[in-house]
Amino acid sequence: MNDTMKTLLLQRAGPDYTLARANVPTPAPAVGEVRLRVRASSINPVDFKFARSGAGLTMPHILGIDAAGEIDAVGPDVTGWQPGQRVMALTNLYRWGAYAEYVIVDANVLSLLPDELSFERAATLPCAGLTAWQAVHLKLKLQQPGRTVLITGAGGGVGGFAVQMCRQTGARVLATASRSVDRVRFLGADEVIDYRQGDVLAEAMRLTQGRGVDAVIDLVSADSATALLPLLRHNGEMVCVVGRPQDKDLPPWEKAISLHDVALGFAYQHGDADNLRDIARAGESLAQSVAEGRIDPQITRIISLDEVPSALREAQAGHTQGKVVIRL
Fold first, then answer.
1. The pTM is what?
2. CA 50 from centroid of its chain's CA atoms
3. Percent of the chain at pLDDT above 70?
4. Same domain, 154 and 171
């Protein structure tokens, strides 16, 4: 290992954020941490959102919440892990991330990878795959077949994973998308609503014969979540990943809906070691599903580190479908 590592540094945050290749000192793992040799990462909305806002970041910063690679070094008091093991991890948003040759992560969040799963496929999972997993399995607990779920923004990475997971529970899946209608249907959606062509609420009501849906997974915005509240049946549930409705917009108490938040990346700030271990175990289950071909990792493009700045801008403009993977 060299004393320095190649990175893509966020030098300035804001609407005109700048990213540039640089060599920086290779970090060493502290107590309870491991260092990964990153082999692959991926593009996620949280990356360009943090690049634009810079909120809570110390500059310069390294983005990249997804990491897949081998353990390179183990810090003090870490047991059960050793150099050379193939793993993936969700990185801490406020520390240097995986757009670099090496990254430091909490040992509790490590997921062991099946030997047959490539690093590129694994790199799609920590953020997008596990966000969908929490929405479907931790929050909604879709155990009873026959429920109807609407998933907004199904053309993106989280949406595509959620479509597959909901379908596998036996749910009827309605999805919203635009340019990726055929791909979303291929992933398992029963009906795909092109949100550019009309009123999503009205079309979903038509598709359910006025009955509404049992659950909504909203991946778009607080405004989107609010607009879809009337679609929920009595005892319906909504999972909010980007923003939640305000109290004043909620239906009457008698409708008995449930609201759930998914904020996977903030487990480091608001959770504890058990929360991180829960993420790791879910990651191992999901990695096994991908290795066995039960979940499609939705890779649409593999790029180099030098191509990341333009790929982030494309994602920010809403032009990215599925998962764009970075090979390091």
1. 0.96
2. 14
3. 100
4. yes
